[in-house]
């Protein structure tokens, strides 16, 4: 029997009521953050302040390097900035890069008691990217993680709350078998369920694996952390060239999260430019050594996604189960996004060629428009290449559509009232083209509607 209690809506809405702390801690929302090079504490401050404004409770700091100053300085700056802004941080060890958990322990020991370190049930939270297949020389991965993480820390009097992404354990999602084999975990996080796979065709993202994983986790009395993401486009020499659909992925995952009510949500990601699913700042220092990534991330600001994620976080925390309840803080909140290169492009000048999964991409203008409860007579108008390609009556909550038939040239979305007044509008700054002799870029232009 699952033992966590959920805070009733009224308890969260009423400031003078007693809030059950353990339940309020559940339903926290995090953003996966790649620790990369930064020029100084100002950049850390900017990330922390923006994330806090969106409603995130903490960054999950993906650590790949515990030696070099660029990494250790960034971590220190982030903790300084978090302290100034009453924000929290926890580590997510990247086991695909550093395959030895012992390597991470000095860093974890140094920060786990920091005032800005995120705790759950008074225990320092720690996650991973992968690691379920590593046994560190023990008879099983479970035994390896117990010895090298839990026992090693308990010698120092530290008990972590261990909530890894172990979806590389060998099964499809977490099952009761997983929880009996891996009793070292205190909860689980999924990564891969955030997007459809490249072999799903034009099918949409599914929450079936998340639902099964959450059921199994709860049967083991452990929380489930569900991933929410936008798209995945990677285009790097040698290590990956693929496109996982981003047309309506964000909006569809929001609906799935609200319907499923997981214990925690982690947005993938704040700043991973390599996989294109960043919603925050991509600092120049962090991609300085990768001209490949610069070629598809520079000039592709994604911050408009924050505008629609912020009301989503509020709705999730308030216990909303339907996207109709994702209402904006003001008159509206909206963003639209599109790929400026048609899927049919040959990309003959790009040595990497087209990404796998390119044929799943829809040439479309995608929008997410949040409207208030009392909405009436608002029309969402989508212009492509100077023509209106959709005119959609707005309803309260989340309005999201992928409008096919994008045309070459400029893109625009307008929110128009019944009397013709324009409530808000956003215009592209990058035209849609049919062909390129440069990078075969499937990243999205994301446009603020203001
Ligand atoms: C793991 O890392 C620790 C500390 O960095 C080191 O002493 C140990 O030899 C490493 N183990 C393996 C198997 O590489
Ligand atoms: C937390 O970490 C920051 C950055 O290293 C440091 O300035 C601060 O003193 C630490 N606070 C505590 C309570 O350890
Ligand atoms: C994906 O979702 C969209 C929007 O709900 C829907 O129109 C479309 O038919 C779905 N595609 C598939 C293959 O189910």
UniProtKB/TrEMBL annotation:
- Is NADP tagged as a keyword? no
Q: Which GO terms describe its molecular function?
A: hydrolase activity
Instruction: Say if the entry is tagged with keyword Signal.
Output: yes
Key words of the record: Hydrolase, Signal
Q: InterPro entries, from UniProt?
A: Glyco_hydro_71
Where does the signal sequence lie? 1-24
Q: What is this protein called?
A: Glycoside hydrolase
**Taxonomic classification, please?**
Eukaryota, Fungi, Dikarya, Ascomycota, Pezizomycotina
């Amino acid at each position: 029997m699952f033992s966590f209690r959920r805070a009733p809506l009224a308890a969260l809405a009423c400031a003078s009521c007693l809030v059950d702390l353990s339940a309020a801690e559940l339903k926290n929302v995090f953003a996966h953050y790649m620790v990369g090079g930064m020029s100084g504490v100002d950049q850390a401050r900017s990330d922390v302040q923006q994330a806090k404004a969106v409603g995130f409770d903490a960054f999950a700091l993906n650590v790949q390097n515990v030696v070099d100053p660029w990494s250790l300085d960034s971590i220190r700056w982030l903790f300084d900035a978090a302290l100034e802004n009453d924000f929290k941080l926890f580590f997510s060890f990247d086991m695909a890069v550093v395959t030895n958990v012992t390597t991470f322990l000095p860093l974890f020991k140094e920060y786990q008691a920091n005032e800005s370190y995120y705790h759950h049930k008074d225990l320092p939270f720690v996650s991973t990217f992968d690691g379920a297949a590593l046994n560190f020389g023990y008879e099983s991965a479970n035994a390896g993680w117990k010895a090298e993480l839990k026992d090693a820390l308990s010698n120092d009097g530290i008990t972590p709350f261990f909530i890894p992404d172990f979806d590389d354990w060998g099964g499809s999602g977490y099952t009761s078998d997983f929880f009996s084999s891996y009793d070292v975990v205190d909860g689980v996080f999924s990564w891969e369920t955030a997007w459809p796979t490249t072999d799903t065709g034009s099918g949409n993202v599914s929450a079936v694996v998340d639902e099964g994983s959450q059921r199994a986790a709860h049967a083991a009395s452990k929380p489930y952390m569900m991933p929410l993401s936008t798209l995945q486009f990677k285009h790097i020499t040698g290590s990956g060239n693929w496109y996982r659909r981003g047309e309506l992925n964000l909006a569809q995952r929001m609906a799935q999260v609200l319907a499923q009510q997981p214990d925690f949500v982690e947005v993938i990601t704040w700043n991973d430019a390599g996989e294109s699913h960043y919603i925050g700042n991509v600092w120049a220092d962090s991609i300085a050594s990768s001209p490949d990534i610069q070629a598809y991330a520079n000039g592709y600001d994604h911050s408009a996604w924050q505008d629609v994620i912020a009301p989503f976080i509020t709705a999730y925390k308030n216990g909303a189960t339907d996207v109709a309840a994702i209402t904006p803080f003001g008159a509206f909140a909206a963003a639209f996004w599109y790929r400026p290169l048609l899927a049919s492009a040959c990309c003959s000048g790009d040595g990497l060629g087209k990404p796998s999964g390119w044929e799943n991409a829809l040439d479309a203008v995608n929008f997410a428009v949040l409207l208030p409860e009392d909405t009436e007579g608002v029309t969402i108008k989508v212009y492509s290449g100077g023509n209106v390609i959709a005119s959609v009556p707005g309803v309260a909550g989340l309005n999201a559509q992928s409008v096919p038939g994008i045309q070459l040239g400029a893109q625009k979305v307008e929110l128009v009232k019944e009397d013709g007044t324009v409530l808000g509008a956003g215009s592209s700054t990058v035209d849609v083209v049919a062909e390129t002799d440069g990078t075969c870029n499937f990243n999205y232009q994301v446009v603020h509607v203001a």
